[in-house]
Structure prediction request, 476 residues.
Amino acid sequence: MSAVKLREDSEYAPYSEKASGWEPDKEKFPEEELDERSKRRRTSIAEGAMKHNRLGWKRLTVCLIVEAIALGSLSMPSAFASLGMVAGVLMTVGIGLIAIYTSYLVGQVKLKHPHVQHYADAVGLMWGKFGYELTSVMFVLFLVLLTGSHVLTGTIAWIRIVDKHSLCALIWGVISAILLYCLALPPTFHEFAILGYIDFASIVAAILITMAGTGAAASNATGGLSAVPWSAWPPADISFSSAFLSTTNIIFAYSFAVCQYSFMAEMHTPEDYVKSIWALGLIEILIYTLTGAIIYSFVGKDVDSPAILSGGKIISRVAFGIALPVIFISGSINTTVVGKYIMGRVFPNSELRYVHTKKGWIIWLALIAILTLIAWVIAEAIPFFNALLGLISSLFISGFSFYFPALFWFTLIKEGKWNANAKNIGLSVVNAVVVCIGLIILVCGAYASVEDILESYKTGSVGGSFACSSSSYEGK
Prediction:
């Protein structure tokens, strides 16, 4: 595949034409004597680069937690209800361990190719310009839709908290979008990570309140906890599409690899990323397994998704109120990642990309506003938005979290032939299995999501577009 000739002084240029293939370029300044303006520009770029190189492994862990652990963790009990307790626990732990491994592979690519800054850069190393452009579209579209999902989640939360259905629900959508915009404004992840501590405390508190509320309700019901209708095995009448949709809920909860390159680009010691992914992976496995198992055992087969809705009206209002920080902080980081990607691509050789000048800040504020507005419009306009997000997630997360990292091992990480030694043979088998898992998620997840959309239309449960009625948001 032929390479595309890009400017040699581009720090962000994803590729350079070299005999060895496609590799990111380093920034190179002219050797001739610089005039005052060029010296100021060079100083500004150097200061900006330093500002965006302060992330340590602890704050990387926090950023990954913000990206990965959101209100979706409270969809785990519903997944357990569809899969049964045994399969639910095994899937949650098993997929979590696979996610840790594929995230490790993602980081290895970054260490071998230090100037990879976003996921598209890494895919470009394998598939050239086509791979870079394709993954760029996937990357931006997925993260913008995720922001839109948090607009809707925020709207539903406000509706439940305020409990005044006479108010036009669009008001809450606008308020949610404004909050997402404001929280997405910090231009570095070192700064954003401060919000992450609030985010994590918020989701843990919301989970504990939901556990307490559902547990108390089960204890006070006729027959007590022993009468709760939960099962170790899947329901006999469950369909393939329903079972796989529940599986994808677990899969998507571990989709932190999509932003990993973007976060690692700001690390001062990238080698420390392994500590972060182990910390995040084990925290996720613990939270997801306990949340799914405990709340499912308290509520049974009729548990709602998110499980906050199963706690009763008062508990639901309190839990949604506590969960507001995680809804908006976890949603806003997606916009920040997309904004940084666009700034780097549009201004590869300019200090504007570092957002530390007046002009840089003006462009950044406008860009984040445009991205948030697009997310809000898409979320409000599409009546089956969450089902569409499920379809997009099946198409994209199967790659970001599974078959792309495994292919990275074959093309970018592996040393020698696949059968050169016992280690290579073993890892070749493991990564081939991960590729197959990714392809199964791609095909079966897309099928189950389309079935879900069609079923929503058949049952009339599809919501409306830009609707004022609060009930319209239940179908989204």
Summary: The longest strand covers residues 17-18. The chain has a mean pLDDT of 89. The first helix runs from residue 36 to 51. The CA atoms of residues 72 and 101 lie 22 Å apart.
